[in-house]
Inverse folding.
């Protein structure tokens, strides 16, 4: 109960969806991030493994998350991420969802993803506290 | 009875939202929810959860459009299989052409307010089906807020036009019991073979259950759990007729005895038949259903039992009685919260609670006098106004 994010009558809590998309069974990173976000006072919805872009969109729309963190280690980001972005647009959730990508993204692809609307890309070695700070600062701007 | 127009021009009387929300936003959301826009529904529930400015107006304007959904509450200890059962239940409803809304409530950390809401993972049978609207909520530590927020979220789903609404929560305490009370029918899940759950049942959940679901009925100890529950139901009901009206009352109701028993090869089946159904058309006796949510075994029986209970509610007028009770409780809760807020403001303008505590510690005053000082002027004004009218 130490921050303004909890307990207040009109307190807004940051909600995040941590999503694993596609044929990628490596979810240790997603788990670590889910826990860190939880401990930072966020509400975290974890999608589970092997989600299709449609499923991720469905979850992001219904849960009305502030932040969608896509964890992707399979290399299929250029195919899957744009599909998710299109889905968010379809349900007019694109404007007010902060989309982050975590994983191994080659430099050449980063610009492409950012053009698609990804706000930030976190690669290996990204600091957890920086990421949390980034979410705290960036999420409210979107509303 | 506003009809969801997106025109943004509320009529004069309503143009000033009581809690300061922007009217056009409320108009847009009300219109969107009534038009079946998923995004509007999602944002409405967010505003309800956050008690965002305008949320009261929003819920108030959705209320006239509610009353058609059936609400099922599902509770049980962690790991009992609630989410998996909810998934299968939602699938069954979808197969019958009904739309479904799910509210899944998970605990939040009392220290950081953070939460991992994991129930969505189990919704494997309904992924990609937008007609199952699944929403995770965390049990945030607001005073009396969770049951209010749940009730309001059910209102939103109902107004959206969902046929079936499922509220799922970990059954651990009073808070959770309050939540499932927003449901017409309450199912309590009991996994086999653990004394702990029998303990849980003692703590008041026994009274709220319309149905007991012995999930994971393929595990060892399931039969015994069914027996224990049957025993407990008989003992729990002090009336001399307990457990003896089943066969008569369920005759001709199709789905009486058989549906009480998820597995036909079960040798306790005969006993359980007694505990199901309507007795003399007056009192509902909690029924026991066995399921294996993982494989879907027993789900049809579960759905049949839910339907029987619903029929009972309607036939006996119990449904209306429940609704009356629920609304009365809701009004009381709102009044309590509003007055609490008003008095918190009042004490703040009088120097704050800390200053009052200082004086109490110094033995200059006492808690009763402080409370009287704060409430007296408020009470006085209220009585004056009452006399004027």
């Amino acid at each position: 109960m130490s921050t303004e994010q909890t307990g207040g009558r009109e307190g807004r809590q940051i909600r995040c969806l941590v999503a694993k998309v596609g044929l990628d069974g490596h979810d240790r990173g997603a788990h670590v991030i889910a826990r860190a976000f939880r401990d930072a006072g966020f509400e975290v919805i974890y999608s589970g493994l092997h989600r299709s872009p449609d499923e991720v969109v469905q979850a992001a729309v219904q849960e009305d998350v502030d932040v969608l963190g896509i964890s992707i280690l399979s290399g299929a980001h250029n195919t899957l991420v744009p599909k998710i972005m299109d889905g968010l647009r379809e349900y007019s959730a694109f404007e007010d969802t902060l989309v982050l990508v975590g994983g191994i993204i080659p430099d050449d692809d980063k610009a492409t993803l950012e053009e698609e609307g990804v706000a930030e890309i976190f690669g290996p070695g990204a600091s957890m506290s920086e990421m949390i700070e980034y979410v705290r600062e960036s999420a409210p701007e979107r509303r | 009875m506003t009809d969801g127009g997106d025109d943004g021009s509320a009529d004069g009387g309503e143009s000033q939202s009581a809690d300061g929300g922007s009217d056009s936003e409320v108009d847009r959301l009300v219109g969107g929810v009534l038009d079946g826009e998923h995004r509007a529904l999602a944002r409405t529930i967010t505003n309800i959860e956050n008690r965002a400015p305008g949320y009261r107006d929003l819920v108030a304007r959705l209320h006239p459009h509610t009353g058609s959904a059936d609400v099922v509450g599902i509770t049980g200890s962690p790991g009992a299989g609630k989410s998996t059962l909810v998934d299968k239940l939602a699938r069954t409803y979808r197969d019958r052409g009904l739309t479904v809304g799910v509210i899944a409530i998970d605990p939040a950390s009392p220290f950081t307010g953070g939460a991992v809401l994991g129930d969505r993972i189990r919704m494997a049978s309904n992924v990609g089906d937008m007609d199952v609207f699944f929403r995770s909520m965390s049990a945030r530590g607001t005073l009396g807020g969770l049951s209010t927020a749940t009730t309001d979220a059910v209102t939103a789903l109902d107004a959206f036009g969902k046929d079936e609404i499922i509220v799922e929560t970990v059954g651990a305490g009073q808070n959770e019991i309050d939540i499932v009370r927003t449901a017409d029918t309450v199912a309590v899940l009991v996994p086999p073979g653990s004394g702990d759950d029998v303990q849980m049942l003692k703590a008041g959940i026994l009274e709220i259950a319309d149905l007991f679901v012995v999930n994971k009925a393929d595990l060892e100890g399931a039969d015994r759990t069914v027996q224990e529950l049957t025993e407990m139901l008989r003992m729990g009901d002090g009336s001399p007729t307990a457990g003896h009206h089943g066969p008569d009352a369920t005759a001709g109701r199709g789905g009486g005895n058989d549906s009480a028993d998820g597995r036909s090869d079960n040798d306790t089946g005969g006993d359980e038949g007694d505990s199901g159904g309507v007795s003399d058309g007056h009192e509902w006796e909690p029924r026991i259903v066995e399921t294996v949510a993982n494989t879907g075994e027993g789900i049809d029986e579960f759905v049949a039992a839910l339907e029987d209970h619903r029929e009972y509610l309607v036939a006996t007028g119990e449904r209306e009685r429940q609704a009356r009770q629920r609304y009365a409780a809701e009004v009381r809760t709102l009044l309590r919260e509003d007055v609490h807020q008003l008095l918190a403001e009042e004490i703040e303008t009088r120097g704050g609670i800390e200053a009052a505590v200082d004086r109490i510690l110094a033995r200059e005053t006492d808690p009763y006098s402080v409370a009287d000082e704060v409430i007296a002027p408020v009470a006085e004004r209220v009585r004056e106004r009452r006399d004027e009218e």
Notes: Residues 72 and 103 of chain A are 5 Å apart (CA to CA). The beta strands of chain A are 15-20, 43-46, 67-72, 98-103, 120-122. The radius of gyration of chain A is 14 Å. Chain A touches chain B through 39 residues (CB under 8 Å).
